[in-house]
Design a protein that fits this description.
Strand order of the largest sheet: 1-2-3
Largest sheet: 3 strands, parallel
Order of helices and strands: HHEHEEHHH
Number of strands: 3
CATH class: Alpha Beta
Oligomer: single chain
CATH superfamily: Glycogen Phosphorylase B
Helix content: 40-55%
Structural class: mainly alpha
Length: 149
């Protein structure tokens, strides 16, 4: 990840980045972590595995829930549930750089994308939708593979 972030920084030298845990910097936690989320515009949601359908950490909820534009690899499959107007999807470093540069230069588009992503995420994965799905599976009213989202 250090090398990956280094490449982004080299290509976008004016980009301000909060880099907890990168290049031996301390990780953010607690109130500091929340403050970083609240003041961030774009967040990288990159996992070691992009080859497993819909795999992600809870980072996606943290980012989307705080209205950040979520930058996520297209290979994760989240394009099946979110549009390009709701998240920043990319397939390679060049595409990621291009899209970050565009969203950084167009704050209205960036805010619109973050707001739309937050709204879609909350609609699809709110506590009522998830609880109802769990109840339906437990009561054999639907199969676990039939995720409504």
């Amino acid at each position: 990840m250090d090398d990956f972030i280094g490449l982004i920084g080299a290509r976008l030298p004016s980009l301000r980045m909060a880099l907890g845990g990168i290049e031996r910097r301390p990780h953010f936690s607690g109130a500091q972590y929340q403050q970083v989320l609240e003041t961030s515009a774009i967040g990288l949601n990159i996992s070691r595995r992009a080859d497993y359908y819909l795999y992600t950490s809870d980072r996606i909820a943290h980012l989307a829930g705080n209205g950040c534009v979520v930058a996520i690899e297209r290979a994760t499959g989240y394009t099946d549930y979110f549009s390009d107007e709701e998240m920043l999807f990319f397939s390679d470093l060049d595409e990621l750089i291009e899209k970050i540069a565009r969203l950084s230069a167009e704050p209205e588009l960036r805010m619109r994308t973050g707001t739309a992503g937050r709204a879609r995420y909350a609609q699809r994965f709110n506590e009522q939708a998830v609880a109802q799905f769990m109840i339906d599976v437990i009561m054999d009213e639907c199969a676990p593979e039939a995720m409504p989202w």
